[in-house]
Specification:
Length: 319
């Protein structure tokens, strides 16, 4: 293995750690202001500002937007796929609500299980484009294995008053939302040919969705706008981390491939989430042997499902 490949593998793992850090930052902001949707809007909105500035000085992003407009006009790309960013906004809104309740590690296990399970449905209906894909028994087993890992992760806390099983379930739902969003983004990216254009569109749609959603909640008196706290400073890094993560993925995936990047990224996310809950836990969160076992099982399930999925793609290509 070359030194360049080793560096890219390391960066892929770091990108996974970023996901865990983003969850911790967004979760803490939500905890401090008591409004998860407002916290999600702050995260998404700050990311939109950053990527908008980047777009002003990046002609390729504008070119990607023109490509998308042409694809929609020619009806090559369904118009509804452009709203993938609304799913991203929903994901962050759920994330900000539940991380303070269950911690980053359990949230990561639950969301990855949801992503793995959703990928079966997404591939079966052909949402990623390129037609429907055959789902092998091995991938189904891997999905069930990752879902079972969630149960193992919280096994010692099922009767604990400080654990919300509904929050764990919502973590799985959040992961499923991401799985569907990524599939829709796959279609968008095929036509934009610019990953940053796809991301820019996601930030626009996600921020717009959260503005509308929060406005409705305020109007019906379900939520109140809360003044943002002065600090700590790191609670406002969610949007910045999101943009950096996009930059990482758009660059590294091209060299490592989706499978290798996913395996290192998920590994980084799981290890990172464990360290975060160990050194900077939310209230009531603790590390147990069940949680560590669940994390190991989750990664094993991703490896089994991912390797099999890669092999299936290779066979289809050779045909």
């Amino acid at each position: 293995m070359s030194k360049k490949t080793q560096r890219l593998d390391f960066l892929a793992a770091i990108s996974g750690v970023m996901i865990a850090l983003q969850a911790r930052a967004n979760g803490e902001l939500s905890h401090l202001i008591g409004n998860g949707v407002e916290a999600a809007l702050v995260s998404f909105g700050s990311g939109l500002i950053i990527i908008s500035v980047i777009a002003l000085f990046t002609p390729s992003i504008k070119e990607g937007a023109r490509n998308l407009r042409g694809a929609v006009d020619r009806k090559e790309l369904p118009r509804w796929t452009l709203f993938a960013g609304a799913l991203g906004g929903s994901f962050v809104a759920v994330q900000t609500h539940i991380v303070p309740l269950i911690g980053v590690a359990i949230y990561s296990v639950a969301s990855i299980a949801g992503q793995t399970a959703a990928s079966l449905v997404v591939d079966r209906i052909g949402l990623t484009g390129g037609g429907k894909k055959h789902i092998t028994p091995r991938r189904i087993a891997a999905a069930f294995f990752t879902v079972f890992a969630v149960f193992i992760s919280v096994f010692d806390r099922i009767d604990a008053k400080n654990l919300s099983l509904f929050a764990v379930l919502m973590g799985c739902v959040a992961g499923a939302i991401v799985g569907v969003q990524r599939a829709m983004n796959g279609q968008i990216n095929e036509h934009s040919h610019q990953s940053f254009t796809t991301s820019f569109l996601n930030f626009i749609m996600g921020t717009s969705f959260l503005v509308i959603f929060l406005t409705i909640l305020v109007l019906i008196h379900s939520e109140d706008l809360v003044p943002l706290p002065a600090g700590p400073w790191w609670i406002y890094t969610g949007g910045v981390i999101g943009v950096i993560y996009i930059a990482f993925t758009s660059t590294i995936v091209q060299h490592l491939g989706v499978l290798t990047f996913t395996l290192f990224s998920v590994g980084g996310q799981l290890v990172g989430s464990l360290l975060i809950d160990l050194y900077s836990p939310t209230d009531g969160v603790h590390i147990s042997v069940y949680l560590v076992t669940g994390i190991a099982m989750t990664y094993f399930g991703v490896i089994v499902g991912g390797v099999n999925n890669s092999q299936s793609r290779k066979r289809l290509t050779h045909k």
